[in-house]
Amino acid sequence: MATADKGRRAAIRRKSRRPATRTGYLHGFTPHEQDRLYHQAAFLADLVHDRLPFRRCRDLLEVGSGVGAQTEILLRHFPLLQVTGVDRSADNLERARVHLNRCPWAKGRFQLRQAPAETLPFAPDTFDGAFLCWILEHVDDPARALAEVRRVLRPGSPVVVTEVMNATFFLDPYSPNTLRYWRAFNDTQLELGGDPFVGAKLGNLLLGNGFTDIVTEVKTFHLDNRMPGERTEFLGYWSDLLLSGAPALAKAGRVPARVVAGMQQELQRVARDPDAVFWYSFVQARARVP
Question: Does 14 map to a domain?
């Protein structure tokens, strides 16, 4: 027991020495990447926003609101909602303000604050719901971020967390350059303080922070000859996602240019293959504050 306690204390000390600015966000904050986030939100909206439990909410917290791509959809789906978005990036927040002010249904219904997910600038019991989407994979301490979410939510408030599970990626025909790139993508995200496999851990993370009524749902893209149009469209989206991390991976010396070029050729070949198969799963968790 003493040895286990010593190990836990050492882990805590290592965690405390991590720089506060660590982020597992590989994609950068360029205008092209910001545009990609709008496309991603619209492309995945049917799955991510299906039957969200915010009908009775009036003051929703969105952690990792980014460029406002998910915010726009939330405000469109729930006309009585006010959304407060929090993000670490000033560039993304400025783009979100411009974007949301152009949406007639969003004007006057949102606030944006710059802050890390692990240190929310709000008093306890401020909000009656929370939405987190593709954010915990990028933070250094997902448990602390969820602890902060619980702190600022009122009793009974629903929370929805949607996250990646990158170990599920499968592509046929076999594409070795793409798989090598994908491994480097995930390894680099881990080194930067993120977690590309956090989706599988959402149940434990929510339970450990005292949330109740926890339900996780695995949502899968299994695209083959039964839906060739959707398969082609999704491969285009996935190619953009992969390539958005290429500059950071090249800078880190993790992926040579020939692998990136080989991956692009493979993805084009897969898109033309009449028998191609694409598989990817992510996880959405729903819970409540007791």
Answer: no
| Alpha-carbon span 4 to 276, nearest angstrom | 48
Measured CA to CA, the distance from residue 90 to residue 245 in angstroms comes to 20
Q: Is residue 189 part of a domain?
A: yes
Task: Reply yes or no on whether the pLDDT at 62 is more than 50.
Answer: yes
Q: Say if 221 falls within a structural domain.
A: yes
What's this model's pTM, rounded to 2 decimal places?
0.89
In angstroms, the CA 135 to CA 162 distance is 8
Query: pLDDT value at position 259?
Result: 96
What is the dihedral angle through the alpha carbons of 184, 185, 188, 193, rounded to the nearest 10 degrees? -150
Q: Bridge-partner residues for 286, per DSSP? A: 160, 215
| Residue 162, domain extent | 23-288
Amino acid identity, residue 209? N
pLDDT confidence of residue 16? 36
Asked if residue 218 is part of any domain, the answer here is yes
Distances in whole angstroms, Cα of residue 88 to Cα of each of 67, 93, 134, 237, 262? 11, 8, 14, 25, 34
- Counted domains in the chain: 1
| Cα 45 to Cα 285: distance, rounded to the nearest angstrom | 16
Alpha-carbon distance of 249 to 243, in angstroms, equals 10
CATH number at residue 180: 3.40.50.150
